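RECORD TYPE: inverse folding
INPUT: structure tokens
STRUCTURE:
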């Protein structure tokens, strides 16, 4: 089966982009983020898509971006936090090397403060984050081959845990990017 070498799923702020870039560097491959694909296709940031066209329109753009990326990309792929809500996306991810990057609410507070411009966290962000996770956690675990906890770990430690969990050898000539901050 062709497609991505690794697919990262998990909640917003878990570090999918940072870890994905590190994994791509270590494996000597490319990195792609479906949120960036959506932004590129829409010509505006995700919060503006939510506010201007609504969540349903955003989810359709996201579904299209994920399906294209899975069909076209052979490197490391990061999916938006809500991509797993779509049943066709979950079916598409079956039997693929999907890794669920997890974190608890306290870690989310440390990383993103839960006060950033995230449309789904606009009111009472702690409660909304918990509700999102209650609704999504089982979907992340459903599609994932492995789960890697990111709490109290550096991006480099998470990337290594992903490689170890999937039993993927790091390229010996791949550059290692010095410490990056969590995103």
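DESIGNED SEQUENCE:
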């Amino acid at each position: 089966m062709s497609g991505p070498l690794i697919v990262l799923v998990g909640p917003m702020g878990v570090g999918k982009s940072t870890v994905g870039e590190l994994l791509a560097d270590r494996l000597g491959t490319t990195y792609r983020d479906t949120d960036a694909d959506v932004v590129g296709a829409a010509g505006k940031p995700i919060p503006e898509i939510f506010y201007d066209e609504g969540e349903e329109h955003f989810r359709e753009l996201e579904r299209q971006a994920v399906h294209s990326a899975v069909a076209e990309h052979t490197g490391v792929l990061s999916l938006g936090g809500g991509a797993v809500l779509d049943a066709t996306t979950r079916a598409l991810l079956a039997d693929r090397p999907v890794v669920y990057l997890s974190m608890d609410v306290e870690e989310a507070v440390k990383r993103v403060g839960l006060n950033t411009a995230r449309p789904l966290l606009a009111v009472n962000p702690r409660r909304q984050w918990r509700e999102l996770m209650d609704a999504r956690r089982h979907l992340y675990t459903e599609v994932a081959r492995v789960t890697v906890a990111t709490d109290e770990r550096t991006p480099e430690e998470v990337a290594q845990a992903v490689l170890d969990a999937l039993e993927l050898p790091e390229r010996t000539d791949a550059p290692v990017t010095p410490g990056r901050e969590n995103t």
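NOTES: The helical segments are 16-27, 34-42, 46-53, 55-72, 87-93, 105-112, 125-143, 155-166.
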